[in-house]
Amino acid sequence: MTRYSSRTVILHWLSGGLLLFLLMTGTFVLSNMPNTVEKLGSFKIHMILGLIATLLSLVSIGVILKSPKPEALEMAPWRSKLMKSNHIAIYTVVIAIGVSGFILAQSASLGQIIFFGADTALYRSFKDFGVGVVHGFLTKVLLFLVVTHVLGVISYSIAHKRNIMNRMWF
Length: 170
Ligand code: HEM
Known about the structure:
Elements: H1 6-28, H2 40-66, H3 77-107, H4 110-116, H5 130-159
Helix pairs in contact: 1-2, 2-3, 3-5
This protein binds protoporphyrin IX containing FE.
Protoporphyrin IX containing FE binds near residues 23, 97, 101 and 105.
């Protein structure tokens, strides 16, 4: 096999796109907005897409473990270990972000306010919650892992004069 299974390819690009969207809008839009009723629509989108991204990661783990893999890339053992650790860390951190986001939303009654119309006042800042600080910190860790993931692909392609992007395409 010269490439990943079609199911793996679809899940990879779907969750990659969703995660980038959540990382960018969370960092540059959501966290800069004051907590007023105008923010509820953005929260709703963030919470729904965040839960979908977390579920997609869980599904991806199952699909990757079950699907046949393409032949291993030629590389030094240390680099191969680093690559595997990067992949495992990405899944672990995405799931931890999803769980911390869910706990944060529950602690601040966001779910009840947004989905069930509860008349509870919005908290002034979600950074008052320890789990909110954890959620924000983990998103920076994820950004670092995604950047090193992409740099790894680019540096391998240049060093081996081989386009390995087509392994993750149809
Ligand atoms: C894996 C998917 C997710 C990603 C990548 C993500 C990303 C982010 C980012 C980048 C921020 C801004 C952090 C900062 O201020 O430094 C944020 C904030 C937040 N997220 Fe998520 N998130 C995800 C899932 C979730 C889920 C599932 C929920 C709730 C069900 C959630 C609820 C929140 C809340 C309440 C905030 C606080 C926004 C604020 O400070 O105003 N997130 N998220």
